[in-house]
Amino acid sequence: MNELTALELDALAEIFNISVGRSASALSELTQEPVAMSVPVVHVMPIQRVIEILSPSIGSERLTCVSQLFSGSFSGEAMLMFPENSSLEIVRLMLGSQVPIEQISEIEQDALSEIGNIILNACFSTIADMLEDTFSCDLPKLNVAPISEILEKPEGESVLFIQIQLALESRSLEGYLAFIMGSESEANLQQALRSFLTGVQS
Amino acid sequence: MQLFEQALGVLQSGVMILDGNYRIHFINQWLNKAFDSTPDLQGEQLFNSYPELEGKRIHQAIEQAIKVGLPSLLSPGLNRSPLPLYRGEGANRERFPQSIRVQPMQVDSQRFCVVEVQDVSSMIRREALLNQQAEKLNQMALTDELTGINNRRHFNMLLEKELRRSNLQGTPLSLVLFDIDFFKQYNDHFGHPAGDKCLIAIADYLKHQLSSYGYQVARYGGEEFCIILPEQDVEVARHLAERCREEVEQLQIQHPSSQVAQVVTASFGIASKSGKQSETQTSLILRADNALYRAKLAGRNRVIASERLDEA
């Protein structure tokens, strides 16, 4: 496929800003705390490049990843990732729990899956809205592992990679959304974006 | 088909299937029994029967499954008890915590939604117990066994936190270190159990008098105590230390082998930092310890403050 144009990337950024905005209000309703989210950067790149870019800042820390498989006009795996410590902090802030960070339990793990599920679903429903598409997807799975293991996917897959900034009680935490797709799916996404942009401009 | 329905009927968790109009197409016995009011929910519209669910997360999840075809997970940590479901009989009847999965299901061209409910009471109870134990262990690790006040390890953590705050926000911080005079002689004279009682009496006094001000007290070592005064300058610390000194004396614990008084007394050293200067923990403690040493040299039962760094 061709590289996405600047216009197409902007359209994607808009879609994801709407998505995380929706998830932020859902999360803040749920926790009764102000939650704000924004998407500074959207990028499409090979999976190997994602690992290269993330590795220095993550170091040896593990990633907490909530993933859902999806299929539609483009298909693949959607992931929400946070460095492990940030993810524990998020869940502790949201649950108001006092327990030390190393004692995260089943309840907190489920809560993390739900938080991921809310954010990923908001992305899917916004994409479906704007690109007039439908998706079906699986229930979320939670996985905590080193980055190389989380992103161990067949070569040649490309990733729609989105940096997200989450603000919670005066803390600002960085996380990542990744939509891993085969090249055919990527072409279909581009096609959908083009018709969306034509629709907007006409 | 009947076999499957029977199987769902004996299942010890809840299953219900809603159609595109939120009408309950199927509900298994376990779930129907757990709902409080209506005898048979089959055929009812869920949100007509339970209007209080309207707009809640469970409503959004079901709507998302039916309209957009997306599955949701409702975890007990974030939603303790999304549906009005009860267990037990009579006075023991209580709404139970739930874990819920909501999944879309496409049959021919019709979209349904499967809601799966689990009672997670025992998981929640186990967790509460574990949390309690963890908290107790943490408390034990940070408390001085004899006196019940903060131990040295906790003191170090608290001081580090307050120092960071002071350096960041530019607020002053004071530290008072004090030592019971001739405590070794007290122990030799009355024995260790009496010595322990003396330490407990002083710790109790500190705990009751000072915690209400937001000052933290800790046992630093054998007969050595310390007080952290967040956001207070040297004058406040000096005033407080002077008061402590008087009141320790007024506890009137007899101390015949003391060379400075008839009763137990203490010597005090103070180190304060202004909001402007940045200082490390070691340096602050060293300065307080040095002031305490000079208080002892100068004859004990007195308060001496370290000179401020920016004046030295």
Describe this structure in words.
The complex is a heterodimer of chains A (202) and B (312). The model of chain A has no long low-confidence stretch (mean pLDDT 86). Chain A is an alpha+beta fold and 202 residues long. Chain A is built from 6 helices and 7 strands, in the order αβαββααββαββα. Chain B is an alpha+beta fold. Chain B folds into 2 domains: 2-125, Beta-Lactamase, CATH 3.30.450; 145-305, Reverse transcriptase/Diguanylate cyclase domain (Alpha-Beta Plaits). Chain B is 42% helix and 22% strand. Chain B has 10 helices and 12 strands. Chain B has helices at 2-10, 29-34, 46-49, 57-68, 121-142, 152-169, 183-190, 192-210, 234-250, 281-297; strands at 14-18, 24-27, 72-74, 86-87, 94-95, 98-107, 110-119, 173-180, 216-221, 224-230, 266-273, 303-305. In chain B, the strands form 3 sheets. Chain B has a 5-stranded antiparallel β-sheet. The longest helix of chain B has 22 residues, at 121-142. Classes of the chains: A alpha+beta (202), B alpha+beta (312). The A-B interface holds A 26, 29-31, 68, 91, 94-95, 97-100, 103, 105-108, 110-111, 113-115, 117-118, 121, 124-125, 128, 134-140 and B 57, 60, 64, 68-79, 99, 101, 103-104, 106, 123-124, 127, 130-131, 134-135, 138.
Q: What is the CATH level 1 assignment of chain A?
A: Alpha Beta
Helix content of chain B: 40-55%
Sheet bearing the most strands of chain A, described? Answer: 7 strands, antiparallel
What is the chains' assembly state? heterodimer
Work out the strand percent of chain A: 25-35%
Low-confidence stretches of chain B: none
CATH topology assignment of chain A: Chemotaxis protein chec
How many helix segments of chain A?
Answer: 6
Number of helices of chain B: 10
In CATH, the homologous superfamily of the largest domain in chain B goes by the name Reverse transcriptase/Diguanylate cyclase domain
The CATH homologous superfamily of chain A is named: CheC-like
List the domain count of chain B as a whole number.
Answer: 2
Number of domains of chain A: 1
**Rg calc of chain A:** 17 Å
Let me know the largest β-sheet of chain B: 5 strands, antiparallel
Question: What spatial form of chain B do the alpha-carbon principal axes imply?
Answer: elongated
Which residues of chain A sit in consecutive blocks of at least 5 with pLDDT less than 50?
A: none
Kindly name the structural category of chain A. Answer: alpha+beta
